[in-house]
Amino acid sequence: MLFAYAVTLLGNAATAEEAVQESFRIACMKPEALIRSDNPVGWMVNTMKHAVRNIKRTQLRRRIGATLSLDDDEVCLAQPGRPDEYADVEFSDLMTDEEYRMLKWHVLLNVSIKDIAETMDISEEACKKRIQRTKKRVQKILSEKN
Predict the structure, then answer these.
(1) H/E run at residue 131
(2) Longest Cα pair distance anywhere in the chain, in angstroms?
(3) Which DSSP category does 100 fall into?
(4) What letters, b where the CB count within 10 A reaches 16 and e where it falls short, cover 73-105?
(5) How many CB atoms neighbour CB 1 within 10 A?
(6) Considering only CA atoms, which of 70, 2, 74 is closest in space to residue 41?
(7) Which residue has the higher pLDDT, 142 or 132?
(8) Which tens digit of pLDDT belongs to each residue from 17-57?
(9) CB 16 within 8 Å of CB 10
(10) CA distances (Å), origin 107, targets 44, 50, 104, 116
(11) Which of 83, 94, 89, 1 lies closest to 40 in space, CA to CA?
């Protein structure tokens, strides 16, 4: 029953099997919660729903991580002679590659701070602060050039 429900939620038998296995792993880790439950089958279904949610979240992070590595696009955008060339400002003068990626993901691609922080393997607060500092530095340099 759990497997059929997981396949319905995930659409993939291998991933559904992973969700069911995770549910039983949790049940083995918390046997007293399962035994004390008024509805053990319902407890297992809810545990499996949470496992499915975690799997979907992990899959989304992986997709975002793949989307966030746009090095080819960055190279293309930085080439001279393109109509969308970024004026006379070179990014390397303004910020590091990491700062550029973080700022681009957040400002241009509307990626959340949380997802950027997870991708960069830093805390959300550190991510916010780095983006804030980068924006401030870029604004200062651009205002000095004008």
Answers:
(1) helix 124-145
(2) 70
(3) H
(4) eeeeeeeeeeeeeeeeeebeebbeeebbbbbbb
(5) 10
(6) 2
(7) 132
(8) 999 999 999 999 999 999 999 999 999 999 999 899 888 87
(9) yes
(10) 41, 32, 5, 11
(11) 1
